[in-house]
Amino acid sequence: MKNPNTLCFLFVSLLCLFSYSNHQALAYIDEALKQCLIRHSQNHTAIFNDIYTPDNSSFVSVLQYPIKNTRFNSSDTPKPFSVITPREEPEVQAVILCAAELNLRVRIRSGGHDYEGLSYTTPAEKRVADQNPFLVLDLINFNNVAVDTVKKTAWVGSGATVGELYYRISEKSKTLGFPAGVCHSIGVGGHFSGGGYGMMLRKHGLAADHVVDARLVDAKGKVLNRKSMGKDLFWAIRGGGGNTFGVVLSWKVQLVDVPETVTTFNIVKTPDQNATNIVHKWQSIAPKLPRELFIRIIAIGQNPVQAIFNSLYLGPADTLLKILQQSFPELGATRQDLGEMSWIESVLTIDGFPNGTDPKALMGTIVNNGQPNYFKGKSDYVKNPIPVEGLEGVWDFLRENNSGLLIMSPYGGRMDEISESGIPFPHRAGNLYKIQYFTSWSEAGREAYENHMRWIRRMFHYYTPFVSKSPREAYVNYRDLDIGTNSMPNSTYGAQSNNWGVKYFKNNFERLVRVKTKVDPQNFFRNEQSIPPLSYIVN
Ligand code: FDA
Questions:
Q1: Ligand 1 close to Cβ of residue 157 (< 6 A)
Q2: Which domains does the chain have, with CATH numbers?
Q3: Which regions of the chain are under pLDDT 70?
């Protein structure tokens, strides 16, 4: 066996050679990694079977399978030199130790939904890619879900989807649920790392509010749990964003009680049907309704523009009808609009599955099936109702782009009760609602890309007077590199020029930096929007 120091020296020289002979250098890196894994693994044969390099016929499918955003799945998207899909904790430890030893960058991937592709690439359009070769550590095999209905808890692997979690809960109980995202294919790993919200937000808060333990591999390759990681690190991983503090392998979550009968509805209004005034009223009342009621608006750019009032009520239809007639008569809801079902059926319905779909469908993921799906999202927080004239301008934007949409999600209820510093996710009391701006397209090429990016950025600019200021807050799980990035390749954070961290985390950013400085001072876990250690902050 070679001396590790010799290997390391050899490796630094190889990185210098990198630009001269890319292919050869990658082969050396691959070999150096394997040699290192032999030293650090008890059973290196097992992990060797889970390493995919470009010369492996499965490399492309393993890399591309979970990619949701075609913007980061083209021939010029920077690719990892390897995708590793470990099955056991010691394998993850060995990968981290070897990546650190060989100065390789690691991108951690759970469900692959990152809006800017940060879990599997360095964004091509920025052209500031980290110069070091990188590998993708894909947790797809860490997908075990173990539900304990007596203690009302579950351990869930980071590579499981929220749909798998929901389904496994429903297999065992009709009156337990979990408050996480709407789309079943979202990975638990990234979702919980950034907060994670869904239709039970007002009653129960975020997914991250319900994390009671976790297992994590840190930058030194150690496996930690809640007790051994300590209060600060346990605080930081519950909403401080992924790929910063370590590889979270699994999470223990507190489940929530749900009634046997819940009610959903979808009521569509167009501007001709008084949509503007109804949305205007919704802004003030939706955050104050009983917390069991979540009515979000999905406004879509069609002709005519539609405002879809999409709702979950944790209770029976008759009670909901009374609440709506009393507090929101403008919506004109009737008993026929309201559908009663079990909580798990509501998960399927709100996610767009046809009536009667077997809940097992939640175990599947969404694959693009060769259909390109380019998208861009952004977010904002609204603290005061937007005037009617402001909303009318929004319809004009939506009329321009029939694949553009806005999702407005009301806050209030439980969100008002949790302190801004309880976990790193800071957007609590004082917010009426969150806006997600979204556009998607299927045409390849620069023109479509430019048109859609210009549209969403103009829309975002239009909203400036109506949304939060100093900072203009954003939700880290709707990752948006427009709001600022670290300077790659070293991942330095420009405190004066670039305050993306404060937009995502407000005052919690400072504590996140302190935690990072303590647990990963060398900035091993880093990407374009990872929390920097203090020494990486420049003015
Ligand atoms: P992915 O694997 O891409 O990871 C995201 C980030 O976390 C990356 O930086 C990655 O490196 C890091 N990371 C991943 N696993 C990690 C781990 N185990 N340890 C440490 N770091 C890790 N959000 C929401 O709150 N409510 C919603 O309803 C929805 N709906 C939704 C629908 C669709 C179609 C998309 C594409 C996205 C959403 N989201 C959402 C946003 C979603 O919460 C966000 O993209 C999550 O980061 C996705 O987590 P994944 O594990 O899938 O992403």
A1: no
A2: 4-131 (3.30.43.10), 145-257 (3.30.465.10), 262-341+367-466 (3.40.462.20), 484-536 (no CATH)
A3: 1-21, 124-131, 366-370
